[in-house]
Each structure stands twice: as C-alpha cells, then as structure tokens.
Design brief:
By secondary structure, the protein is an alpha/beta fold. The protein has 15 helices and 12 strands. It has 2 domains: 170 residues, no CATH class; 190 residues, Rossmann fold (3-Layer(aba) Sandwich), CATH 3.40.50. Helices cover 40% and strands 16% of the residues. Strands 7-6-8-5-9-10-11-12 form an 8-stranded mixed sheet, with helices on both faces. It has a 4-stranded antiparallel sheet with strand order 1-3-2-4, sandwiched between helices. Helix 13 links the parallel strand 9 and strand 10. The radius of gyration is 25 Å and the shape is elongated.
Length: 396
C-alpha cells in the first residue's frame, strides 16, 4: 500500500509537496505538528508532517463531496465499499502492523482532506484551512469552520480578505463575552479571581483596582487569601499603598467573613486567591469553602494563553466546581498563536471578561470583545492597546 510522509516548515508547504508528488487525487490521512513543545520549537523550529496516499479512500462527512469539491469542478470521489473499515484494517495488518495506528487516526478524522490542484481550488480557500492549522486551531474545529465557509458565496468568488472576514464572523458567533464588571450605586460588588499558579491573578487584580479607583473614581478594597506564595501579600500590599486602597489579609473562613463585613460600604471588593493545581482536589475544595464564606457576586477564572488547549480545557473544568462565572485570559504578549483558546472560549465555554497582554499597571488590560478574540484566535491582528486616558469599559 502506497502511503507517503511529507514534512515541511508550514502546513501549506507540506500540502504543496503532496500536490506535487501524488497529484490531485491524493487523500490526506493524518497531519501533525512536530516539535510542538517550547524547547523543540526553539531548537528545531516548527515542522509539520502529513501522511497521504493515492490508494486509500476515506469518506467525507459532507452531504455529497468534500469541502474542496463543493467549491470547484473536481469530480466526486470513487464509491467506497460500506465495509471499508474492516477491509482496510485487514489490509493494513497484513502489510505492516504500524499502519494500523495510522488507519485508526484516519478513522478519528472521519473524512479525508482531498488535495486538489491549484487550478481547481481557489488559493484563498486552500490557504484559509492551513492558516487555521498553523494558528493551533484543532483540526476538527478548522474543518467544521471550513465546511460552513464553503457553503457561502464568498467561497468561490471572494478574495482571501473577504474569506477571512467571513470566517471571523463565523467564529464570533461561537464566542461569548461578559463585558466589564458592572457596579451599582449604593451596592457593594464582590469579585474573586481564581486559577492555577503563575497565571497573573495578582497583577490582574492590581490592574482592575487601579482602573476602577483612578479612572472610574470608585471606592475599591482588596482582600488576599494568597498566604502560601512567597511575597504574594507584599506584592499586593505594594499596589494597595500606591493606589491608596484598603487591604485585608485573611487565612480562615472567620477572617473572611469579618473582612467582607468591614468593607461592605465600598463599591467593589476584589479578592486575590492562592494559585491551585487543577489536579489537587483537596486544595480546590479548600478554595470552594473559602469562597462560600465571601459569597462573591462573580468568580473570574484566570488562565494563561501560553498553556496548551488540553491543559486549558482541563483546568477550566476542574475550577468550574468552585462556581466560576467568567474567564480572564492573560499573557497574550507571550503566546505565538491562539487557536488553543477555542477549547475554553467556544460554544459551551465560559464567557470572557478581560484580556491582558503585559505587566504594566493600570494598562495592558482591556474588556474582551468578540471581534478581538476572533482576530486573535485566527491570527489576523494583534491586540489593540487602549489609550491611557480611555476607561476600562471601552472595548479594544
């Protein structure tokens, strides 16, 4: 059985190699990114691998033809026997045990990407898919978006810019945002920030406190439960002294109740919590008990955009047990691509409240908008910087 592997620095270059060597009838069975870890990327750079064949046929999920065939004149694929899975599985076992794993991967993909020649497929549509893959958007998600895009008039007649704009609108429809923390005159709002260690909770609280105190002229108080991390209390106290805010340090549920009671005349109480490993169920339960005493109006989960998609999804799920209501995405300035955010911001995920992209207080934070999130995930533009005089309520 003729199955070949191609490697290149970009997904598009790898697919071009498939086109050149195997022709327009080739079927892509498997794609993956090599050197996906940070160390591998630094030492060897990005590299993509594609396994393709002119003999294996994997059926499409689309009603009649593949995505590319729906927007071009490529003839429909040859009929495939209904028992193709058992047939090819037996063939694979007979020829090479290692091919069984490859076929399993092809089954999970559910359908193959037909590689058509440049004359048959608009370059703009072909490149849209590879751009999404290079942005770390999961292959299944990229294909679903491409299916929706292929049904629109712009798929055959639009430029790449028009396709990108339409794709951004499709993605925006899947995203949820909350807007900023809304304060009501005469009422105290309690907002807690939770999350793993090292994601920027304390710095984010300082940015929020400075914006609401200095730019919105609100009465703000700080409470920290982070008595575990070295110098964590001193870091927040330094911010409190500079901004001239009251601050309480608590370590027990009783102290939490008393601190909340003393600050009830303020407009906003921001609570900093200790970083917890999502795998430490005991610490997660401790956090849940402490939050129960403060009865926060909002619980924002703070996650770093540098983390992998699987890690983000797992962390969001574990912290969901403490009653998270919104999501803050930090360290956008440190990430190279943002497709991983689809695992937590897509349909069914938490709505996003704020985005941060630096250490500067009170700057480097903005209210999340669907447009900014979609452009970030698709890699179309960088996060705009709010002007120093603009309120935090302004969407970036």
């Amino acid at each position: 059985m003729n199955i070949k592997t191609f490697r290149a620095k970009t997904m598009q270059q790898a697919l071009d190699l498939v086109r050149t060597e195997l022709g327009p009838e080739a079927t892509v069975l498997h794609t993956r990114e090599l050197n996906s870890g940070l160390v591998g990327r630094l030492l060897k750079g990005r590299q993509y691998e594609i396994a393709a064949s002119t003999e294996v046929r994997v059926p499409t999920r689309l009603p009649q033809t593949s995505v590319y065939e729906s927007v071009s004149s490529v003839p429909p694929p040859h009929p495939v026997e209904t028992d193709y899975r058992s047939k090819y599985r037996d063939d694979f076992r007979q020829q090479n045990d290692g091919l069984e794993e490859l076929h399993s991967l092809a089954e999970r993909l559910q359908y193959g990407t037909r590689v058509a020649s440049p004359s048959q497929v608009p370059d703009s549509l072909f490149h849209i898919y590879t751009d999404m893959i290079e942005s770390d958007i999961e292959e299944s998600v990229a294909r679903e978006l491409l299916e929706q895009l292929s049904d629109m008039p712009a798929a055959t007649s639009g430029s790449k810019a028009a396709l990108q704009a339409q794709l951004a609108r499709l993605l925006q429809a899947e995203l949820r945002v909350t807007g900023p923390i809304q304060l009501t005159p005469g009422q105290c709002r309690v907002v807690a920030l939770v999350g793993p260690t090292g994601v920027g909770k304390t710095t984010t609280i300082a940015k929020l406190a400075a914006n609401y105190r200095l730019r919105e002229n609100k009465r703000v108080g700080l409470i920290t439960v982070d008595t575990y991390r070295i110098a964590a209390v001193e870091q927040l106290r330094t911010y409190a002294d500079i901004i001239d805010l009251p601050m309480e340090v608590v370590s027990t549920p009783r102290e939490m109740r008393e601190a909340i009671a003393r600050m009830r005349d303020l407009d906003l109480i921001l609570m900093d919590t200790a970083g917890r490993s999502p795998r430490d169920e005991v610490k997660i339960q401790e956090l849940k008990s402490m939050l129960a005493e403060s009865q926060p109006d909002e619980v924002h989960l703070v996650l770093s955009s540098v983390a992998g998609a699987k890690s983000l999804a797992t962390t969001a799920e574990r912290f969901g047990t403490v009653g998270t209501t919104a999501l803050v995405v930090t360290k956008l300035d440190e990430a190279t691509c943002f497709g991983n955010l689809m695992s937590i911001t897509g349909t069914g995920g938490l709505p996003v409240s704020y985005l941060t992209d630096g250490q500067n207080v009170p700057d480097d934070i903005c209210v999340a908008s669907k447009e900014t999130l979609a452009n970030r995930i698709l890699g179309f533009s960088a996060l705009p910087q709010p002007a120093a005089s603009s309120p935090l309520y302004s969407h970036a």
